[in-house]
């Protein structure tokens, strides 16, 4: 995609994530007065005056800090700056110019990119004297804003879109396939995204909880466009100590809501867990397509039937998503990652599959002939006809007599008959039963 890219940088706690959320119109990045809360590059789509662009939030920069997480944050921010068309340098307008601001300003000047200085946290109409210190950066006139109150954001966005190169595509993109990676911590979700992209887009360490936000990453493959959403792993409730961790759980659920396809990543060395079951249930209940990826398969000792036994256990524990295909992968070695990408396209096609009313009713009539609808105390329901009313996920409205007699086992039977003809691999099927005349 030749989409214009805006990168937000600055030292910790100057309000970068608050401004990011304001620009994209959603609470995607976690905002908390704790240094290092935003650790990765977080991508989302912004829009202003009918022009669409990609916004990247980055972790707070402390150039002299060599701690492993902080050094990773610095590397991520530098990579984001390299890909950006416009750099939004956020500073604390109340605190004034700091030595860290000067260091960051020097780095940005050397990048040769268009840099806009946003003096944040100015919540009153009166401009404080500290603002004028930022002219020393030599990056042009600072724009006074309040990310929290929304003051000055329009002027800032005007400046941003005017700074885009003329060859950038700013039209709305309807072809994106939105894929979220879900599962408990340390199962290899971030490593999988990095393997797919062929670069270190997401910080990968062996420190639990490294990924705290839901991170949007854009990717093109075989003429298809994707947004991969990496998420913080869901922990057991008793393991959630910080408010930030609680927010991460909310972000994971929100990431599922924003996605079309959920890839449930399971650690092959640990097997299925309660957390896996819960997040898979949430995705299923919300009508999302699901693929089960068994990661770290290279670490498992195998014999002839190992994968069959593993798959049998998965089907037993996750019987409610029997439609979800299973693929055994290794994010570390790249084993079958290409097959996973192919499977995403197959599932996406099924998620958007529509059956004509005539064909659907042929399937229903044949199913009824083989197995009559249930009856109760001499009353029997009757199926008149059905029609598909929507996709993503596929939803069918069936008109019947005595809808209350439609037992869930017969609904499952109808679903199986439809799947026998059309598959609907990876996607749930929804039914609504109405009495004639409703």
Automatic annotation (TrEMBL):
InterPro entries: G_ENGA, GTP-bd, GTPase_Der, KH_dom-like, KH_dom-like_a/b, P-loop_NTPase, Small_GTP-bd
Coiled-coil region: none
Binding positions for GTP 1 per the UniProt entry: 10-17, 57-61, 120-123
One GO molecular-function entry: ribosome binding
CDD domains named in the record: EngA1 (cd01894), EngA2 (cd01895)
Keywords, sorted A to Z: GTP-binding, Nucleotide-binding, Repeat, Ribosome biogenesis
Cited PROSITE patterns: G_ENGA
Sequence positions that bind GTP 2: 183-190, 230-234, 295-298
Chain ranges of the EngA-type G domain: 4-168, 177-352
A biological process term (GO) from this entry: ribosome biogenesis
Keyword Cytoplasm: no
Functional description taken from the UniProt entry: GTPase that plays an essential role in the late steps of ribosome biogenesis.
Subunit structure: Associates with the 50S ribosomal subunit.
PANTHER family in UniProt: GTPASE DER
Family per record: Belongs to the TRAFAC class TrmE-Era-EngA-EngB-Septin-like GTPase superfamily. EngA (Der) GTPase family.
Protein name: GTPase Der
Organism: Tissierella pigra
């Amino acid at each position: 995609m030749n989409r214009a890219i805006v990168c937000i940088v600055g030292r910790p706690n100057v309000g970068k994530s608050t401004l990011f959320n304001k620009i994209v119109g959603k609470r995607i990045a976690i905002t908390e007065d704790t240094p290092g809360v935003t650790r990765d590059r977080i991508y989302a789509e912004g829009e202003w005056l009918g022009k669409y662009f990609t916004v990247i939030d980055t972790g707070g920069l402390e150039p002299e800090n060599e701690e492993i997480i902080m050094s990773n944050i610095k590397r991520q921010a530098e990579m984001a700056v390299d890909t950006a068309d416009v750099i939004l340098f956020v500073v604390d307008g109340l605190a004034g110019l700091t030595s860290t601001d000067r260091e960051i300003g020097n780095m940005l000047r050397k990048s040769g990119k268009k840099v806009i200085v946003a003096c944040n946290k100015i919540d009153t109409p009166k401009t404080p004297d500290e603002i004028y210190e930022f002219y020393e950066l030599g990056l042009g006139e600072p724009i006074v804003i309040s990310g929290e109150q929304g003051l000055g954001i329009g002027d800032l966005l005007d400046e941003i879109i005017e700074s885009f190169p003329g060859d950038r595509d700013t039209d709305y993109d309807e072809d994106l396939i939105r894929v979220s990676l879900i599962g408990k911590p340390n199962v290899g979700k971030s490593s999988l995204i990095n393997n797919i992209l062929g670069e270190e887009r997401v910080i990968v360490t062996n420190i639990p909880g490294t990924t705290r936000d839901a991170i949007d990453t854009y990717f093109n493959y075989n003429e298809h466009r994707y947004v991969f959403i990496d998420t913080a792993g869901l922990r057991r409730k008793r393991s959630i100590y910080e408010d930030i961790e609680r927010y991460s759980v909310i972000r994971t659920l929100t990431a599922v809501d924003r996605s079309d396809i959920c890839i449930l990543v399971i650690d092959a060395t640990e097997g299925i867990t309660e957390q896996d079951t819960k997040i898979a249930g949430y995705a299923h209940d919300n009508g999302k397509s699901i693929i089960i990826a068994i990661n770290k398969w290279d670490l498992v000792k195998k014999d002839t039937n190992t994968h069959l036994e593993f798959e049998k256990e998965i089907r037993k524990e996750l019987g409610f998503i029997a439609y979800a295909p299973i693929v055994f992968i290794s994010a570390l070695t790249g084993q079958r990652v290409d097959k996973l990408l192919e499977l995403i396209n197959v599932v996406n096609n099924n998620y958007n599959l529509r059956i004509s009313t005539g064909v659907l009713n042929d399937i229903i009539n044949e199913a009824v002939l083989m197995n009559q609808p249930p009856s109760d105390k001499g009353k029997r329901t009757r199926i008149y006809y059905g029609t598909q009313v929507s996709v993503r996920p596929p939803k069918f409205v069936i008109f019947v007599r005595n809808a209350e007699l439609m037992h869930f086992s017969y609904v499952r039977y109808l679903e199986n008959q439809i799947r026998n003809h059309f598959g609907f691999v990876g996607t749930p099927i929804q039914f609504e039963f109405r009495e004639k005349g409703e």
